[in-house]
Amino acid sequence: MESYYQSNDHQFELFQGDAIECLNNMSTQFDMIFADPPYFLSRGYSLKINGEWKSFEKGEWDRVTSLNNINDFNRRWLSACRNVLKNDGTIWVSGTYHNIFSVATCLVELGFKVLNIIVWQKSDAKPTLSRSYFNFTTEYLVWARKSEKIPHYFNCEMMEQINGGVRMGDVWRIPFVASWEMKQGKHPTQKPLRLLYRIIISSTREGELILDPFAGSCTTGIAANLLGRRFVGIDQSKKFLDYAIKRKHEIEDENVANAMFKKMAENPEEVMVIVNHARSVLYRKMIEMGICYFRAGDSKGSLLVTPGFERLQYVLLHTNGENAQLFKLKTKGHFQIWTQETLQQYGFNPRNANYYVVFHFDASKPIEIKKHVNLHEHKNTFRSKIRPLSDFMGIK
Ligand SMILES: C[S@@+](CC[C@H](N)C(=O)[O-])C[C@H]1O[C@@H](n2cnc3c(N)ncnc32)[C@H](O)[C@@H]1O
Asked: Ligand 1 mean position to 54 CA, how many Å?
């Protein structure tokens, strides 16, 4: 079978055509499959809701058919996917109530073992037009492995780290697609990179091969390549695949790729780290006491609390960019304002200010930093800052 597109780095290959036909002609075995199939939402006409005409049309490929047709289609493409999935591989399928029950039933009938049903809650969902039911804010992801008996890969530790040290649950609050991911065009049902990022880092290792049989604009492929995974995508539409190729070209620019990686990893819900420089004597004393402090505000005594402060869960101490050590705060997002005198009572010797922001952390359990970060910046090395935890974890 001839590919529609193969990138120069051989990490991104596309096939144009019907998913089932293409899959039946493939001999490659994949480590993981992500599928965002038709949800069957499009009715071919507009609905009048609260006096406003609204079209839910996604395309001919998404046209509502009978329940039997939907079940038959789901069984056929899932069966074709099963043939190209490694025995220890996993499959993710997205959907809404329109298709997801059929998908889950077919998966079980075909011999897959369902691992989780993830609820993706769109943290920035717009109000549903109709006032006849609750607001729609969620989609579902069924995650299943090929075999009942053969173990699958799950990076539980990484998920725990990006979730502030506690086991990640099955409700994910992630915002909808943002403008920075649509600079090359727009797909009517494009998925956010942040969603694919979490799926990929949780269930694959670097260098592995991922398939998306309903690839569209290839959000899966873009996230996969940014994370050092290889990608194969199928879509019936040349228009969507050409948009995907533009997206791949976009990340061939290293600066764009780095910026996009950062945005993709920076989940607005992510836990944050307060990064604090301390002179070496003070650094040792802070670790001994499990207390980190810095001056509150400017000379006029104001305290500027920036967004993300409420998600603070770690403190990173360093001395002029060296000896970085990461610790968990005793209470999430919790800080106190202490006077100079209070700090003195704890054996510190603060100077130059009356008030200090104080954090209490668990010094008995330093957390391993997995990524080398240059803290010795040209400017402002000594100023405390808030950074996402992913900056210090080797996410790949
Ligand atoms: C829900 S969209 C996927 C969007 C994609 N996740 C993204 O982020 O851009 C489903 C895609 O499946 C394609 N499609 C639908 N039926 C297909 C079929 N039988 N074979 C191949 N592609 C199909 C459509 O063209 C559409 O782009």
From this structure: 22
